[in-house]
């Protein structure tokens, strides 16, 4: 019995998705909830589990193909009502003939030779449509006694190349580097004995832009399909820019005290397992300002303004798939250590391409950290459905007047874009002024929070 699995809507009203990678092929045995395919929607890369148990009969969509929601993508033979004699005969082409003395043994878990190794599976499963050359049919008249297949042994780990220095990194750091696509051999470690730390890996992702493909000789131009995240981002930004009347205000701030506070927080046990950056205190300052001025955390609904008394804090993240804005749910209710852990988890998942659709919906106000790219300021476009977005520029050493004297200070530029239908100039100025004041003196977060 063939059962078809149709592409589901894994987000909120998504209409299509691109097939990124199949994890199974025709002839493979699959179980319920086994990951079978990765798809990319306009919001995220999602792994889809199989709802059936059986054998893959066919893949109905190719990698790279964009499929509409509701279209079948895979057919699975569940074996319900099938001719077991025929299936057993097909399976016999793939498994060794048992010894005569083992004829009474149950064959449910005999090894099935597939590709380059041995996979355990039922003998009644169908073979692949195109079996590898290493898999040969059993002769019609086998010898009386046939040796069982030798156990599969993992190949020995290759020795490091001559002159190559071993990379020192703990397993969690190696996994993080793999998820983020970072080559550990190209990083200089700052940990004990030159070991690579999580901070080193994150710094490598921020410092190195995504390399562009080298065009072939003689190619003067190329065409890149607009799809997935890029397509959704383009539509959302155009809709926002030409729907909401944008106003952007700028403020330079002395953040010397904030940078000192960041260094002190890093030494506290409560923050030992997370990366503490200036963005943490920027986020806390914005959350405090939202509490003082709730209207900045709202949305335009035609005849109404919806003021939200909760904050799903969006953090704009540049990834290989394009710009995405996952958000921290109920960020207003988190302690400072909790906010730090949520920020770390959110950015790590985004850069690894593991942000889920639920992470990318429901945001109420956003921060974009353009400072990591060496940029002082910009005019960010408001996310659709929100009233404001705060841009945080790079922190630089600049001459600053303190008590009538010019001294070097840590200075940044903040830029607040807001929807002028909701937030007028006075309110926008108050919000930006207060965020700047809290970053100039972080103790104000305690007084105003």
Summarize the structure.
This protein is of the alpha+beta class and 449 residues long. It has helices at residues 84-92, 171-180, 198-207, 228-241, 256-266, 278-292, 336-351, 425-440, 443-448; strands at residues 2-6, 16-22, 29-30, 35-40, 45-49, 54-59, 66-68, 72-77, 111-114, 117-120, 246-254, 298-301, 304-307, 313-315, 317-319, 322-324, 327-328, 365-369, 388-392, 396-402, 405-419.
Could you spell the SSE succession in H and E letters? EEEEEEEEHEEHHHEHHEEEEEEHEEEEHH
The total beta strand count reads: 21
Q: What is the mean predicted local confidence, pLDDT?
A: 78
Strand content: 15-25%
Number of helical stretches of at least 4 residues: 9
**Category by helix and strand content:** alpha+beta
The number of domains: 3
CATH topology of the largest domain: Chloramphenicol Acetyltransferase
- The span between the termini is 62 Å
CATH class of the largest domain: Alpha Beta
Query: Could you say what the CATH architecture of the largest domain is?
Result: 2-Layer Sandwich
Any idea what the radius of gyration is? 29 Å
Helix coverage percent of residues?
Answer: 10-25%
Shape: globular
The major β-sheet equals: 7 strands, mixed
